[in-house]
Amino acid sequence: MNTRFNHQQLLRYAGLFTWIMVGIPLIYAWQQGLAENGLLSRSMLGWVLSFLAFGILYILVAGKLSVYRRGWRDGLYLLFLTISAVAVSYYSSTGLGSVLLMVIAGILPWILPVSFGLIWLVISHLTVIPVFIFGPMDLTGWEALMQSLLYAGFSTFVFVTGYVAKLQASAREEQRRLNAELRATRALLAESSRVGERLRISREVHDLLGHHLTALSLNLEVAGHLTEGLAQEHVKQSHALAKLLLADVREAVSEMRHGGSIDIAATIEPLLQSVPNLHIEFKADQDLRLDDASLAQVVLRCVQELITNTIKHAGAKKLELTLQKLDNLLILKSEDDGIGVSLAKLGNGLQGMKERVSALNGQMVIQTAPGHGFSVTITLPLGV
To answer: C or N: which end of the chain has fewer Cβ atoms within 10 Å?
Structure first.
């Protein structure tokens, strides 16, 4: 049984544990309130609802932490998560909300840039100051400020811990991507080496054995005209056998050259393995093979960039990749179910992909719209 947890899971479980511990005073106050009054007060009800809301929102946000781009929904969840944490302090008249804000600090670096995250952290803690002044603690303004800044200091430590966890997760994801690229490149090199070796052997067979058999057939044909009787009959049989062997050699050479092509689907397969938070469906024509190694390399790099672009920017859960041969064209199509954009601006990755395609006289067409995903169609001529 594998008991190892990744950084996202550790942060999630640590936050949930802290949330449960914060609920212990709530249970005690609940029992005490029921024993004294026999019903829940308005503040107790608000405390319960805000506490439960925090737990639900935290599960929604922390359940899908990613090192890549976050959607607007995550920002909205973060806002309501912070409001529920502050509400716990107001309804309970304690600093328990500040403890929950420390839980939020652990996931802030995964949602907001570092500078905005720190500003969010400090402001959220300052909103609890009225609780320290007007609540049972009855602190002065200066004391309440110091109390809030003390909680903010603890939260900063948690924030840095979460940021380091994000950096480590990002490094691990980069290592996974590079390993996938390495495996795919290795597969391409192995296919290219196999093709090259088959072509070399076919050339040698054709040039050496084919040449000798052709010369032998010509000599036997000449000998057939110079001999008579039984000897001539044997020469003619030898001539027929030489012609048959020459035809077999030519057929074998043709088959070797025909089989000397790259299985592009097998080359792409390593790029599709263990991609985080993305389901990839890959379909390719059966027995689709490429004779040109440079074309196979461009297809491989395009698939790699399409997957990376989807993970980083699309916010998609599913990516469909299709590769097919139509007449004398090779068509690669990518379509995701992400957020889409109103105007497709080419970043470095897509621009580099377009340049590779253009170098082979191919075309790249992008189709996208907000809420309708991102689609890329690449058309490459065969035999260039």
So the answer is: N
Number of domains in the chain: 3
Question: How do residues 335-350 score in pLDDT, each as one tens digit?
Answer: 887 777 766 566 667 7
Q: Which two tokens stand for residue 299?
A: 């297809």
| Predicted TM-score of the model (pTM) | 0.61
Report strand pairing: 289-290 vs 374-381. Answer: unpaired
Mean pLDDT value of segment 230-245: 60
Residue 2, judged by CB atoms within 10 A of its CB (0-12, 13-18, 19+), counts as: exposed
Residue 210 lies in domain = 199-258
Same structural domain for residues 59 and 124? yes
Q: Which residue has the tokens 């970043």?
A: 347
Question: 280 and 248, same structural domain?
Answer: no
AA letter at 24: I
Separation CA 256–CA 189 (nearest Å): 19
Q: Is residue 185 part of a domain?
A: no
Q: Are residues 208 and 234 in the same domain?
A: yes
Amino acid 1: pLDDT: 38
